[in-house]
Specification:
By secondary structure, the chain is mostly beta strands. It contains two helices and eight strands. The protein has an eight-stranded antiparallel beta barrel. β6 and β7 form a beta hairpin. It is globular.
């Protein structure tokens, strides 16, 4: 092990926390269009014409900690522009017309202090989803939430017919 990795391990840092995630490069718009689901009734519908319908989608990275969930309409695009954590393809979803917001219940282990200091839900918001394939080669959309150093993932899976 290198000296730098040893020193980082001694001070409690993960020497791989900033490594790029595997890049997906073979997705097509038709692969992305459809409805995507996650926990607590989250649903994101990406239409072939580039319109998006968002229902109860949490914020990404540190915004997740504010516990707001957004619903509304907007636009989406598949892009290979370098963003966030890798240089592969991404799906950018922009909420341009918020129709509702909700608050996610606190996790049982979450301290209840400072709840009033949380930021209010934004009127507009843009998510950047990374793309990956699971072990069955099915496409998944995901983003990191909470502290980006922890690499916790919020995964949306395609709705099954």
């Amino acid at each position: 092990m290198s000296l730098v990795a040893c020193l980082l391990a001694l001070v409690g840092c993960n020497p791989h926390m900033y490594d790029e995630v595997p890049a997906l490069r073979d997705a097509k718009r038709a692969d992305i269009a459809g409805s995507w689901l996650c926990v607590d009734h989250t649903q994101v519908t990406l239409r072939p014409d580039g319109k998006a319908v968002i229902h109860l989608l949490d914020g990404q990275e540190f915004d997740f900690d504010d516990r707001w969930r957004l619903s509304g309409t907007g636009r989406w695009e598949l892009t290979d522009e370098r963003m966030r954590w890798n240089d592969g393809q991404h799906v950018r979803v922009a909420l341009t017309s918020r129709t509702a917001s909700a608050t996610r219940a606190p996790d049982p282990a979450e301290p209840l202090t400072n709840l009033a200091e949380r930021a209010p839900a934004p009127e507009t918001y843009t998510w950047t989803f990374e793309l990956r394939r699971n072990n069955r080669e099915e496409l998944e959309l995901y983003f990191f939430f909470g502290d980006p150093d922890s690499r916790s993932t919020y995964v949306l899976k395609r709705e099954q017919p």
